[in-house]
């Protein structure tokens, strides 16, 4: 590998190559722009060679060809729109890095309508006067959650920050030590609380917290009691936690609101299908929480949003707070959320129309049938195998749940598994896969029927690209 690093051509030599001119013209780049990209590619290849990286494929007689292959891929990537369609072959339904929940067809339609026209976002059609965007979605949220009132902000971390800042700034918030979770991107409940101006008061131990721990911690400086649902991890063994229904009488006796951060907002009860143990939002409201916050783009299956539902007394205070404007959502988010919530009026409609619910409930046999249909049109040059595996729900939800699935294993004589995975990832559309036993694995739980033709085409392009190269 290291001897090949010494054979890499100089930049000025590569600039004279015909392929340099062709790539510059194909992607409408200046010589200066493409030269900067070329320097990046050569430096990256040199670094990989010196590190002995197995993923790099560089034959002594085809160094220029490999460099220009990588240069074109890099130019294509830089010249393209940054937010792109990705085929998710990982089997992780709520893949945070890939955008979490897909919207239903109706939600997509409503987003386009809202984006392409004027709307009554803050306008009362019946009176002709200024209205509030909060009113557009509140009735639907009351209906599906059983709460008295609700408000929507831009994500659940914002929802938690909003509640703490508006109701507990400069005051104490009592939380069990076992619930001081860290969510994706190293955001911690304790850090959000600190930023909000609330004062964290930890009670209990990591594995056990009792009702008397909360009771003994309440002082004149206490603003609220907070529960955080540990949706992204599970503690087992010698553990104990105080449910909201037991905390509620204590909160009421001290005139304190009880706030529960659910994290993932579940409106469809997956427990009835034997999947996980996530409480529904309606259950959390029924257990007595004065305020409940949850995400819109996780198991609810809608757009990114933070939803706060609960008692009207507290929601009204949030609506009047200055942060309500800072954290508000736009018309496209409200349109998508309203359409998604409408599906929940009929359970059968929610099961068939919301992609997230559909994917989680997909049986192992149904995944196998998808793979069979895909294999029929697959180029015989690909060697395939089908094996049992497990999918994940993802998005920091149901960490203990493994969904039985099948994966398609792909190999080809001209590709190593790492090379093929990289090539699929860098194409258009990008295909994100896993590697299992030195083979590229595609889980069809997260590959919809309408994406199969694009996946077929992408696999064919891989063969052609390597042949040209």
TrEMBL record:
Any single GO CC term annotated in Swiss-Prot or TrEMBL for this entry: cytoplasm
- Gene Ontology molecular function terms on file: L-seryl-tRNA(Sec) selenium transferase activity
The UniProt entry lists the main location of this chain as: cytoplasm
What's the source species for this entry? Halalkalibacter oceani
What the entry lists under InterPro entries is as follows: PyrdxlP-dep_Trfase, PyrdxlP-dep_Trfase_major, SelA-like, SelA_trans
Q: To which protein family does this belong?
A: Belongs to the SelA family.
> What is this protein identified as?
L-seryl-tRNA(Sec) selenium transferase
| Pathway(s) of this molecule | Aminoacyl-tRNA biosynthesis; selenocysteinyl-tRNA(Sec) biosynthesis; selenocysteinyl-tRNA(Sec) from L-seryl-tRNA(Sec) (bacterial route): step 1/1
Q: What is its EC number?
A: 2.9.1.1
Q: Gene encoding this chain?
A: selA
Residue(s) carrying N6-(pyridoxal phosphate)lysine? 298
Compartment list: Cytoplasm
What broad class of enzyme is this? transferase
């Amino acid at each position: 590998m290291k001897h090949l690093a010494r054979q890499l051509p100089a930049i000025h030599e590569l600039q004279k190559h015909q392929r340099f001119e062709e790539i510059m013209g194909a992607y409408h780049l200046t010589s200066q722009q493409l030269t900067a990209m070329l320097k990046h590619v050569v430096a990256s290849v040199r670094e990989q060679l010196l590190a002995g990286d197995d993923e790099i494929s560089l034959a002594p007689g085809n160094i220029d060809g490999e460099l220009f292959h990588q240069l074109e891929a890099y130019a294509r990537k830089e010249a393209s729109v940054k937010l792109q369609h990705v085929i998710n072959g990982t089997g992780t339904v709520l893949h945070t890095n890939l955008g979490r929940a897909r919207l239903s067809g109706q939600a997509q339609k409503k987003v386009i309508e809202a984006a392409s026209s004027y709307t009554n976002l803050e306008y009362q059609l019946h009176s002709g006067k200024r209205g509030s965007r909060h009113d557009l979605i509140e009735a639907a949220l009351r209906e599906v959650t059983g709460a008295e009132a609700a408000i929507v902000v831009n994500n659940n971390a914002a929802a938690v920050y909003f509640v703490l800042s508006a109701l507990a700034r400069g005051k104490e918030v009592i939380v069990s030590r076992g619930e001081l979770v860290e969510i994706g991107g190293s955001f911690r409940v304790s850090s959000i609380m600190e930023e909000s101006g609330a004062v964290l008061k930890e009670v209990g131990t990591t594995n056990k917290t009792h009702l008397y721990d909360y009771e003994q911690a309440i002082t004149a400086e206490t603003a609220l009691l907070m529960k955080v649902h540990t949706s992204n991890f599970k503690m087992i063994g010698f553990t104990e936690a105080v449910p909201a229904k037991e905390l509620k009488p204590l909160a009421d006796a001290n005139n304190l609101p009880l706030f529960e951060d659910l994290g993932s907002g579940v409106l469809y009860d997956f427990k009835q299908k034997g999947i996980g143990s996530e409480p529904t939002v309606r259950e959390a409201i029924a257990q007595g929480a004065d305020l409940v916050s949850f995400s819109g783009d996780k198991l609810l299956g809608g757009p990114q949003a933070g939803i706060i539902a609960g008692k009207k007394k507290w929601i009204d205070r949030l609506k009047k707070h200055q942060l309500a404007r800072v954290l508000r959502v736009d018309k496209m988010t409200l349109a998508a959320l309203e359409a998604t919530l409408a599906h929940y009026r009929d359970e059968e409609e929610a099961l068939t129309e919301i992609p997230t619910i559909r994917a989680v409930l997909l049986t192992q046999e149904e995944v196998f049938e998808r793979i069979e249909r895909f294999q029929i049109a697959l180029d015989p040059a690909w060697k395939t195998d089908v094996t049992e595996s497990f999918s994940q729900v993802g998005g920091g939800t149901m960490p203990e749940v493994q969904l039985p699935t099948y994966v398609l294993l792909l190999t080809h004589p001209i590709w190593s598994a790492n090379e093929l995975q990289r090539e699929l990832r860098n194409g258009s559309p990008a295909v994100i896969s896993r590697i299992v036993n030195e083979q590229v694995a595609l889980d069809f739980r997260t590959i919809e029927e309408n994406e199969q033709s694009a996946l077929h085409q992408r696999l064919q392009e891989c063969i052609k690209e390597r042949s040209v190269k």
